[in-house]
Amino acid sequence: VRSSNWMGCVFGGCREPAVAIAAAVAAETGGAPQASIIGGQQRTDVAGAAFLNCLSSSILAFDDTHLATVTHPTGPVAAALFAFSEKQAISGEDFLNALALGIEIQCRMSNVLLLPPANPNLGLYVTGLTGPIGAAVALGRVLGLDEQRMVWAIGLAATQAAGFRETHGTMVAGFVPAHAARSGVSAAMLAARGFTCSDCTLESAKGFVGVFSSDADPGRAVEGLGHRFELLSNTYKPYPCGIVIHPSIDACLDIANRLDCNAVIAVAALRVHPLALTLTGQREPKTPLEAQVSLFHWAAAALLHRSAGLPEMQQTCIDDPAIAPLRARIVATPDPALGRDQAIAEVELTSGATLCAHVEHARGSLSRPMTDPELDTKFTAQTCPRLGRDRTERLLSLCRDISRLQSVGSDIAAVWTE
Amino acid sequence: VRSSNWMGCVFGGCREPAVAIAAAVAAETGGAPQASIIGGQQRTDVAGAAFLNCLSSSILAFDDTHLATVTHPTGPVAAALFAFSEKQAISGEDFLNALALGIEIQCRMSNVLLLPPANPNLGLYVTGLTGPIGAAVALGRVLGLDEQRMVWAIGLAATQAAGFRETHGTMVAGFVPAHAARSGVSAAMLAARGFTCSDCTLESAKGFVGVFSSDADPGRAVEGLGHRFELLSNTYKPYPCGIVIHPSIDACLDIANRLDCNAVIAVAALRVHPLALTLTGQREPKTPLEAQVSLFHWAAAALLHRSAGLPEMQQTCIDDPAIAPLRARIVATPDPALGRDQAIAEVELTSGATLCAHVEHARGSLSRPMTDPELDTKFTAQTCPRLGRDRTERLLSLCRDISRLQSVGSDIAAVWTE
Q1: How does strand A65-66 pair with strand A43-44?
Q2: What interface predicted TM-score (ipTM) does this complex get?
Q3: Would you say residue B1 has pLDDT above 80?
Q4: In chain A, whose CA is at the least distance from the CA of B188?
Q5: Is A165 at the interface with chain B, CB within 8 A?
Q6: Rg of chain A over CA atoms, in angstroms?
Q7: How far apart are CA B195 and CA B289, in angstroms?
């Protein structure tokens, strides 16, 4: 579990318009100044700060991914825990234990809804459904809930499970995980005081599994619990866009790096895992948020810019008069024989020459994970514009050494409050 | 639309343990003191007050019901509007218009999910799914949202749709509508400031209708809109328990009133609409919340107490050594030929005599609505213990004349703040 990836993404997203709007609503709402809205001076209550900080970490689609279920597990759990740790001291060790537990349970519940025997509805925004559970479990652990109250906390969290894939490409793509973080906090706080819930909210036919799936097996959630760790399948993104776009980006970057400066692309043909078109088939993105779910935008940007980073998600790149027409000359074909981390690209130049690239495993995938230096570079690129170089270095080293901190919230928040 | 029924239910529920717990969490959370937590001195922000007041109005299962869908529409809408009206002046006329609009849209969306061609999952807690939409529409109206922002508000509300029938019989039965109220407020406030959402969150296959139903027709929502008023099918409850129990209560009260004082019941056989057993089949309730969904408890209480009011939902009645064994001697058989407001009871005495009752339409049903004096009595029974007789009278007359108020929130809150 790398807390630095989450914290870097918070800084990366904290100045986005969606966050500014939500922070204005939080200011109007009030809330005891218990925790930081990271990236500014405003403070609010734990649930509100968890919401805002998870919105920041999610809004650029740059956070982590459990690829088998396309869950982004760290946001809701880390945002809930970090906000709480500013109100009540938690040691680094306890923080990491709770973070790992929340992510593990969240990914396992995502498996229940998304993997066989479940035949999932494509509209399920799984981070919104299982995020509240992960956050509530993590917070329940640091609150020391007994078994009955932990069961209620999980039930209260599941009761707030919500969100649809339809809203991808809008600010609500970030709202859903943020709402999950807030819901998990609310669930744990209510359960801690004895707010009752059913003992089988998750597994009942009239509960979580029954409503969100007609064929899921809730027993999957506990298979090998404590022995097999689902969180080891969590990965970190090199590019700020939908994870299923990444193999296509790699293929296009590979080709772009072999192109002459004056080569002109006639047409680019991609073969992709079918989910890539289902989730990221946006043909003509108009905004950075729409571009996050546009395979075509990122393929075009990678081919022309030879890069796929934060600049490629800016409005200027989306409106670029060279990029937009190239998006229209990209054809993408679903190929069920490909894995989710695979893609094949074939580019034909106006000269008649063709170049091919076959990506076996995308950068950042489980088989080809981002290295520590790459993750540090990603952290710095997102954090430095907000904190400057010295404080960025200090924050990175605190995140790296989080297990040794006495009090995570105050030790880390000191970086931006001192 | 009777605002007094909702307000009375708020006072009826405001001292329940679930409300005390949630109010303690609200106190810990803070929140600008914009609106009353009705029934006490504490104030909090609009979204928090909407949550608390809807929890109060829902927790005794005494609020209103749209029987075709078993939606309780007024709670989320009225709680959101009333809390907002304490922050920003709204005339009685505007308040009523927004309340009617919110309830209308909520009931119509419930029809989409629950009525043919939809084949609904029995776990759907429809008030939690459509309540956020009703509340957001009502608040969006008083905020004067333009069409685009109203669409976003509805989408943000649908994004927070949540809750399962599994949690009935626990405090979460009240949490779900309360969460709907809060979600509606949050949706309208974010949309008002330009937080974007999809334009087809409701009707998309990857959105609200697609996730919560495989066969619903979203077009139902707008059939005859402005001509046919679904809110005219809303009804008020004479008994504080699940609406599908009511015809059995009427049948048992009818028989009880014909019994000799020393008659001893050997067995009672009920024939009920199948939904009555699905939703309220709790055999051995241990708590007042479980009793709300126990057909058997209310039949036994009605037979022995000749009454089915607030005293019959108390723990003392649930634990009564005469009531508990009688619950075990009640047999209930589902009969698809019966309507939801119908029931047949046959009671056999130890003397061998039998008494029958056939209820064609339950008290409080559309065909036999509660009268104004009955509703006033219900209001007074719930409000008087909190406010005393004089202020109860004053509050009732303000609710009756709400259309003439200049500023609903301040005019009404004056009853408990002066």
Answers
A1: unpaired
A2: 0.97
A3: no
A4: A25
A5: yes
A6: 21
A7: 38
